[in-house]
Amino acid sequence: MTEADVIAFVAALPGVAAQTAAEGDGSPEIAWGDSFFFYDPDDDPDDRRFPFATIVTKDYPGFDTASDLDRPGRFRLNIAVGRDRFHELIGYPAPEHADHAAGRDYAAADQLLPHPTYAAQSWVSIVSPGAATDEQARSLLVEAHQRAVRRHRPATS
């Protein structure tokens, strides 16, 4: 699963706005090349505050370096999965992540992991998704999209 594969898959979901940060679009320079996926059926950039998934292509010095993304060909897919799903997938509640983080290899490729920086907010990540995580990544992206749809337009009674 390449970066382009992920972008094409997520961008094809209904109502998704995919944005790859670039010079001239108002994004901070450190984010250039990273991709953000929003549920935005009205295609209004002012509504795009919280993505449901992202792709990070490099380390962010002093903030997010645990995945060792500065090596050639590496990227990290990040997915907001929600509290219950995080607990199911990772085995403990997201707010308890700090108690479980020591010794974890966040640079391990093709493995579902808690996000090295945003696990407490119920985000998971996969460095360079491949054969072992391809289907799971797609399934989790669809679930995250569905959550974003529900949050955008809550069901009425």
Q: What do you see in this structure?
A:
The longest helix is centred in the C-terminal third of the chain and has 19 residues, at 134-152. The mean pLDDT is 93. With 157 residues, the chain is of the alpha+beta class. The protein has a six-stranded antiparallel β-sheet with strand order 1-2-3-4-6-5, covered by helices on one side. It has one domain (3-152): Aspartate Aminotransferase, domain 1. The chain contains three helices and six strands; from the N terminus they run αββββαββα.
CATH topology: Aspartate Aminotransferase, domain 1
**Low-pLDDT sequence parts:** none
Q: What Rg, in angstroms, do the CA atoms define?
A: 15 Å
Q: Level of helix content?
A: 10-25%
Global shape: globular
Alpha plus pi helix count: 3
Strand content: 15-25%
Total count of domains: 1
Top CATH class = Alpha Beta
> Could you give the distance between the termini?
40 Å
User: Structural class from helices and strands?
Assistant: alpha+beta
| Spatial sequence of strands, sheet with the most strands | 1-2-3-4-6-5
Mean pLDDT: 93
Shape-level CATH architecture: Alpha-Beta Complex
**Largest beta-sheet details:** 6 strands, antiparallel
By DSSP, the count of extended strands is 6
> What's the helix-strand series?
HEEEEHEEH
